[in-house]
Amino acid sequence: MLEIKHLGDVAQNVYKLQSMMIRKCFISAAVLLNTFVVYAQNSALQTFTLAHPYSVERIQPPKGKKVKNVILMIGDGMSLMHIQAAWTVNRGHLWIENAQTTGLSFTPASNRLITDSGSGGTSLATGYKTAYHAVGVDDEGRPLKSLVDYAKASGKSAGIAVTCRLWDATPCDFISHNHDRNNEQELVSEMINSPVDFVFGGGSKYFEHRKDKRNLFDELQKKGYYIARSLEDVQQNVKSGKVYCVPFEVDTPLPDERGDLLARASLTGITLLNQNKNGFFMMIEGSQLDDYGHFNQLDMLMKETLDFDQTIGKVMQWAAKDGETLVIITADHETGGMTIHGGDLATGTVTANFSTKDHTGTIVPVYAFGPGSQDFTGFMDNTEIFWKIKKLLKI
Q1: What is the pTM of this model?
Q2: Which parts of the sequence bind Mg(2+) (predicted)?
Q3: Looking at residue 41, what is its pLDDT?
Q4: Tally of domains within the chain
């Protein structure tokens, strides 16, 4: 694996130069080709009303302790607009408001302004820019160490919990490597070499129904992992050790069907990882926000955002009691270009539309709760989030 030391100001200067080059490329292309950017027509206005809002409590943040654990929560495709819309329909209350600090993050890939979950997630996982669609590798295709790798090498535990298939880009950014996120079966076969301790998500399909006829669950079992096909199996039968919990063939069910599954899976993983006296790193993703941004489907996007917020609440409550855990919430990019056109806090109604069915270059939020949260204010590149976590965990 390629391991490069953080060069501080030098790295920042390289990034600024890279950004200037990207801008010049865009300008030059427009001049030479005499072309203009054509924006997709905005989608029709949609209205969503939340019939049953949930209550939110104020959480007292811990004081005076150092960071032993970090939980990085990624809302795939989530922007400030998603959060404001969710806040509106839940009558002006969200768990994420308990964050002690707020920042803003830039998300460009190394070779284009608008990123994807492969490149954007790789920046969060490894601290380096990479090409659009690349997963856990640099621009030359060389594997990069992730926060999972660094945590394990330092004697800590590491885990992930997602609501998508495990071969999707974001989980792979942390536990796999490939130059193209579309090489799905390759990503899964590479994934089983990660030292990660706890994995929860969908995607059993490419662990056992493969072109190469391998059964990766059998191979993981030989590596010492407990293979579970339901979260209840883990909760009832696993008290310690390494776990792959993959209950679904592809993605997890829709929010109305799965209930609080992400929150329960996250807390199950946290409980197992926390047995390590040296601490842990965990990545939790609200994966399907991105899907409904692509689909321009306001009702499902709000349900996914609210589900992610309730998971944030459960994680923050655990972290507040623990006292040594930093919780960071951010996004890998924005999806859909959502704009709020109206709404009503009293009735929990929001009216919005979308400008695209793809990603945008919108700056995304960064929230932090717990010890070390003061380091996540102001403007930052998404790679800086990695370096801040690495420094605070001393890994």
Answers
A1: 0.90
A2: 76, 168, 170, 285
A3: 55
A4: 1
